[in-house]
Amino acid sequence: MTASNDPVVVVDRLSKVYRVPRKDPGLRGSIGSLFRRRYQEVRAVDGVSLEIRPGERVGFLGPNGAGKTTTLKMLSGLLVPTDGSIEVAGHRPWLREPEFLSQITLVMGQKMQLIWDLPPRETFELNRALFDLDAAECKRTLEELVELLELGPLLDRPVRNLSLGERMKCELAAALLHRPSLLFLDEPTIGLDVRMQVAVRQFIAQWNKQSGATVLLTSHYMADIAALTPRVVVISSGRIVYDGSLETLVDKLAPERRVVVMPLRPLSQEELTAAAPFVLEEGRLVVTVVVQEVKRVVDRALRELPVQDLAIEEPPLEDVIAQLFSSEAEA
Amino acid sequence: MKALMRALRAMPAMLRVGFAEMVAYRAELVIWILTALTPIIMLLVWDGVAANGPVGGYDRAAFARYFTAGLFVRQLTSSWVVWELNESIRTGTLSPALLKPIHPLAFRAAENVVVLPFRLVVMMPIAVALWLWRPEMGMFIEARALPLCLLSIALAWAMNFLAQTVFGALAFFAEQSLGLFNVWFSLWALLSGYLFPLELLPSWARTIVWYLPFRSMLAVPTEIAAGQLGGAEALLEVGVQAIWVVLFFFAARAMWRAGVRRYEAFGA
């Protein structure tokens, strides 16, 4: 692999418009649409521009229907853009040239490529043939994947007999057998239990580190984003509303901190009044202040209150993002 | 050309996986095979009709020959790609296949071809039973007609597969595309020689049928197998089949290319 740092994904004013048939509810509507179909244009992606460099890990954030998955489908070549230009690894994705396809992979949470009634080994064997992989090299990659994902006991059981988490792990292995340098992951941890989420996350991070592959993922789980992608692209109503580091996003959106004091003893009513703006919450004294005020508030608490313990809390990422989307919706 | 070489290199593995699938679905497959036993029923009907003397040159032995041959041809030219395509387009499960460097239909074709020997095996006892019932039909196919017969069957298989691809790809455009396929299938059943030998049609109808593709999909290989069509005439008919295959190929390709551009990768 060359060490070139030219962007591997270049997207310029990309748009996708779906034509969705519209039907009025009820029998009347059904009969009506028999004769005259009406269509509604839905602009799923609306002028998205973006550059991604090799080896980057980028998270797509956004509410349902924001256009994250549509963007990912265009990047991987499943959908033809309505407008704008898109170049991935030097190719126009929707032409789906073999040279392009062997460099990328798309994992869609629930959309399985595993053959349902056969053991995963058969899908792997089929993919080896479809990607024209060298048998020995493919075997080595598979051994590596089996070890990283702990697939050993799963390889020879029919896919239908595997649990959701086990299937997801096999799905990842099937998607990576050809060692793609670009990973598009759509909700890779959806429906998995917490332990399995952590395992998949660790695996993706490790794979990125080992192979230098570029990773683009969408997720509803903030933990995925927090653990995996230093860069986030926030999409709302088909447009990019933020593109930058996760830290900056949090600071920008949530400049407030919660200062929590665990008192040594229960406080009297007078003491409580004097402690304002701290308020009592489940036996603890709590106040939310802007970052710049934190030091002053903490100093005062330590000076004036009977402090047993003190904590400064950042708001949960979920709240931050929810706030972003609600302010978007109002704007 | 490069794409074809790629597909050929992958073919052994595709056939092997297709075989594993067949084994997994064997019960379902037997049911599918049994749904295509119409020629036996038609044979019983025409056998009754011919009880009082030959119909349009067909006596009981000729009907037995024709429909036994038709049974084999039908089995060996069957495919189910229209259902698979329809399902995978509407539900979005086509997506992973589209992102492979080999055309999704190559694997579908391999799946459809790999079950042919199994179909033959299931047909054998039925053929023996029919022969015991009407031994006068004889061992009709001559060894020297066999290569042309196999070629004709292969071309008919390709026509069926490609026609189903056209209708399967319609699902890119319309939700109710299977309905259109059913119309096509009805025409095929009536005009391909599936229900009756086409020679029984009045001559004006035969002329119309001659210009339609359906007879190339079943009647031609059936008549060659039944020893009713041979020599230069058979060669001509097989040539016509080859022309249809080329036409169907371009229709399927055009349909597929236009459809894939409209694909919306539903689900997920």
> If you average the pLDDT of chain A, what whole number results?
86
Instruction: Give, in order, the helices and strands of chain B.
Output: HHHHHHHHHHHHHH
What share of residues of chain B is helical? over 70%
Domains of chain B, number: 1
The low-confidence runs of chain A, each spanning 5 or more residues with pLDDT under 50, are none
Net shape of chain A: globular
| Contiguous runs where pLDDT drops below 50 for at least 5 residues of chain B | none
Q: Which chain pair shows the most residues in contact? A: A-B, 37 and 31 residues
Q: Write down the CATH topology of the largest domain in chain A.
A: Rossmann fold
Distance between the termini of chain A: 45 Å
The overall strand count of chain B is: 0
Question: Beta fraction of the residues of chain A?
Answer: 25-35%
CATH architecture of the largest domain in chain A: 3-Layer(aba) Sandwich
- What is the number of domains of chain A? 2
Note the quaternary state here.
heterodimer
Number of DSSP helical runs of chain B: 14
Instruction: Give the spatial strand order of the biggest sheet of chain A.
Output: 5-6-7-3-8-9
From the alpha-carbon coordinates, what is the Rg of chain B to the nearest angstrom? 19 Å
Report the biggest beta sheet of chain A as strand number plus sense, adding barrel if it closes: 6 strands, mixed
Structural class of chain A: alpha/beta
